[in-house]
Amino acid sequence: MTDKPQKDSTPTPEQLREQVEVTREELGQTVEALAGKADVKAQAQQKAAKVKSQVHDKAAHALHRAQDKTPEPVREKAAHARQQLTETAHVLGEKIEGSTPEPVRARAGHAVEVARGNRLLLITAGVAVLAVFVLMRRSRRN
């Protein structure tokens, strides 16, 4: 029995390299999982997207139910009114565009682009103006 060679329990350099690579991979996965749990912004965005999707689905369902319950004559009148409003808005837009000088249209277009880029600022300013207006009316009444 002593003639049989005993197995060497010391790993070879190749085995050690494999173990190191496996350990690195596991460590990388662990760090990635921990980073995902620590990323509050990403979690909030995921939850917001989920809630947005749920709200959209519920709204679409409610809209379909409301449409199903709305009598056909009412739906036809609403569609007709929408069509008339669209046509009237288009005609008015063409008249205004035709009678507005080019420099005014260019400045108005620029103002619209600036406003779209600064919506929060505009909303805040609008709320502030409204608050001042309400306070002034109250002070005049007293």
SSE order, one letter for each helix or strand: HHHHH
User: Which spans of ≥5 residues are poorly predicted at pLDDT below 50?
Assistant: none
Structural class: mainly alpha
Q: Could you tell me the mean pLDDT? A: 85
> Sheet bearing the most strands, described?
none
Give the radius of gyration: 34 Å
The coarse silhouette is: elongated
Total beta strand runs? 0
Number of helical segments with 4 or more residues: 5
CA distance, first residue to last residue:
112 Å
Q: Portion of residues in helices?
A: over 70%
Strand content is: under 5%
Textual characterization of the structure:
- It is a single chain.
- The chain is an all-alpha fold.
- Helix content is about 85%, strand content about 0%.
- The longest helix is centred in the middle third of the chain and has 30 residues, at about 40-70.
- It is elongated and about 95 Å long.
- About 0% of the residues are buried.
- The mean pLDDT is about 85.
